[in-house]
Amino acid sequence: RRARRTRRAAARAEGAKARAYTLRSPALASPLCLSAGGFSPPSVVLGREGEKNDVGVDCDVVSGRHVELKVERRSSRLVATDLGSTNGSAIRRAKGGGAFAALGGGDMAMEPGVAYELRDGDTLVLATRAMLKVSAAAAGAAEAASEASAPPAVKTAAPMFGFSKKKAGVPAEEEEAPASKPAFGLKPPQAAKAAEKRPSKPMFGFGKAAEEAAQEAAQGVGSDTTGEALAQAGALLGALGKGMADAGSKGAEALRRAQQEREAEREA
């Protein structure tokens, strides 16, 4: 009797410490975690996939709503209740014992509507085919183990500062290089057309040459001869400015002479 009491006390203490439980089975899509607190649900209904239940079991002989699993809030025990399934449920204890009728191979049958405790190491058998292994752990440990066993999600990092990432599988030298901005804010074809539309008004013999140089410079934008064409255009424009200055001084001299002649005519 003392030994039984000791085992029961140890079981109650173990249940009080183990507040989270994880059930694993090939018939489940992922490990099932239950706990009295935290983010895991305290109770779920298991049944055949495609039916009205909380967790689907991949087994044809399992009923649509086969069994309910619940973690008691006060004792933190995990209990299972058969919901009147067609092919029944059973518990396979990790260590022998119990006053339930044995089905065979140590499985203990579960009566419908009666709650049975599941302990660490036990196996919940659904319809004699779906085996759910029970493991108990401290609060949070079972949830962490369930997340660790799940396949990691692939995350795609967003590009930083607006720069897009390289195309996968494409060598760097084959990627399209960004188009460089042409000088003066115009693309080469647009610059050439703008130069062609400008009217030709030669001044002092330099206008035509300057215009031709400007056209060559516009056509050479984005090529290797851009610098040379711009230098020629600058030299011609400088000469044009000098010619205009000389013409201005000559015009001023002619105007001064005309005024002197008019004054002489008035005095005469």
Automatic annotation (TrEMBL):
Point to the regions of Basic and acidic residues compositional bias: 253-268
Instruction: Name the domain of life.
Output: Eukaryota
Tell me which species this is from. Prasinoderma singulare
Q: Matching InterPro entries, A to Z? A: FHA_dom, SMAD_FHA_dom_sf
FHA domain location, by residue? 44-96
State the protein's name.
FHA domain-containing protein
Q: PROSITE patterns under this entry?
A: FHA_DOMAIN
Question: Could you tell me which residues belong to the region Disordered?
Answer: 172-204, 242-268
Q: Tell me any Pfam family this protein matches.
A: FHA
